Amino acid sequence: MLSTPNPTNPLEHNNRAVELGSKGLWADAIREHEIALEGDPYNEQFKINLSGACLRYGDMLASKKKYYEAMVQYRKALFADPANAVADKNLDECLRASGKNADDPNVRHQIAEIAETEGRFRTAQVEYRKVCRMTDDGSSHADLARSLLKDGQDVPAFEELKIAVNKPWKDKVEQAKCHSMLGDVLWRYAKVARDRGDRQAGLKRLQNAAISYRRAVTLNPLYSDAIQGLKEVAREAVSINGSFDNHLMLAGAYQLSGDFEHAKMEFEECWKKNPNSPQLAKARRSYHLAVVMNPATPPAVLATSLQKAEDILRQNNQDPEMLFIYGRGKEQQGEKATALKAYQAAASINPHIHPDLLQGISRLGGGPAPAAAGAGAPATAGKPGVAGSGTAAAAATAATAPAVPAEKILDPRRFSAAEGKMASGDSDGAKKELDALVEKEPKDAHAWLLLGRVAEKKGNLDDASASYRMAYNLKDPEAKDAMNQVDLSRIQNLKQEAEKQEAANNYVAAASNWKDACTVAPHLPLPFKSLAVCLQKLGDNKEAEKVLKKLKDIEKE
């Protein structure tokens, strides 16, 4: 006989489940716990109760050597509560008993992949989470995010994607896919905001989607899906607000897709709104470079860019970038002698202005590229900025240039505008300047550091941490301390909750909070130390050893 009343609400279903569990009727208890959680899906205690019931049922099945059925229950326990360390440990033991190497991330990844292919997303997610704990790289978190998206869990998927893009990657193509996936989620929810009339939220999500798509294309310039996504979000942004920035975004998207005619039209819209913008001047240079580098550029478009290059060189024949653009365009038109002279003139000023410059000189039979000279080459008659015989550039061709271009030399004055805006309290203006810098030169470590400072000043700690992490990965000497300081602030709530649970001897909940803190602050020793202590108190020494190994790596840094 059952003493609890027939359940009519989630709490009563939970109480009925607890009573059924006390009588060892685990299958019935689990059913009632699931009904309770379905009625109140955000109730953390209900999740823990369901996880505990599945764990006990799994233990009973495992004791009878029904390992497959036990693994089903352990995975249900871990899906309900990923912090259930005992269920995780017992699942490993069942896998070993069934002949699988539970400690090999490739084995766990294969189990997850098969489950995902078969539409068993909960099993896939439990196994992908295990792989994430084993490897903690970008690819593993992206796999988990993809499975969550397929299962309709957009919010946790979005959080995993944000983690994934800041983790180490071995494959740039896969990394680009992850950025594009993040862009797709943001684009989808931008449309949701638009449909409910929230214009500001829609625009913010569109801008963030555009950033994700651009990063994808930076990693993989041939990624057509990301380029298409960038075009779509930019068109939507222009339709909501035809600002200079949105038209510039759309121009860049068209440029990336090779649609130079539409890109030119968008640049003209930008010129109407702000003809003196330094951003527009930089973007137009980028456009002319893209035109001459694309072998499929229509002849009329190529001719227009070459005319612009000539106009600029008439005003300044010591502009190495424009000399290279002019030479590359002439090479496309088949005028190899003129192209070679333009390349040599560019190299006499800065042989590293573009990775293709030295190859271009060699390709056209010019021998070793000239060394950089203190002054540019004078123009020959009728051709602006192209070195003729007897010029300093021609004489310099005897010098030997390195076979591989050196690291790009960045102008130390490039931060002046951003730093001025930061000093005056114009954080938005500073961010705009710095976004333009990192878009042009994604490996500019100090620009990422300053972006982090701007975000921190605005109170956006997640963005600050991501920017500091980029600066840290690019070896900025100030980035590590800045990143750790921000991450310490970001984990304060998790730290306080974990310490509260530790004081109540609830080490399962404490470990869960410390794990989240480790994810948020992967370079900070504190959460890893505390997580290891919790795991040891739970008796999970194997997992504690892995955490301590990771802690040792962090401390070595």
Protein model, in words:
The radius of gyration is 29 Å and the shape is elongated. The protein has helices at residues 10-22, 26-39, 44-63, 67-80, 85-97, 105-117, 121-135, 138-150, 154-165, 172-195, 199-219, 224-240, 244-256, 260-273, 278-293, 299-315, 320-332, 336-349, 356-363, 392-396, 416-423, 427-440, 445-457, 461-473, 479-490, 492-503, 507-520, 525-537, 541-556. It has 557 residues and is mainly alpha-helical. It folds into 5 domains: 10-103, Serine Threonine Protein Phosphatase 5, Tetratricopeptide repeat (Alpha Horseshoe), CATH 1.25.40.10; 172-259 and 269-274, no CATH class; 276-372, Serine Threonine Protein Phosphatase 5, Tetratricopeptide repeat; 426-490, Tetratricopeptide repeat domain (Serine Threonine Protein Phosphatase 5, Tetratricopeptide repeat); 494-556, Serine Threonine Protein Phosphatase 5, Tetratricopeptide repeat (Alpha Horseshoe). It starts with 9 loop residues before the first helix and ends with a helix. It has 29 helices and no strands.
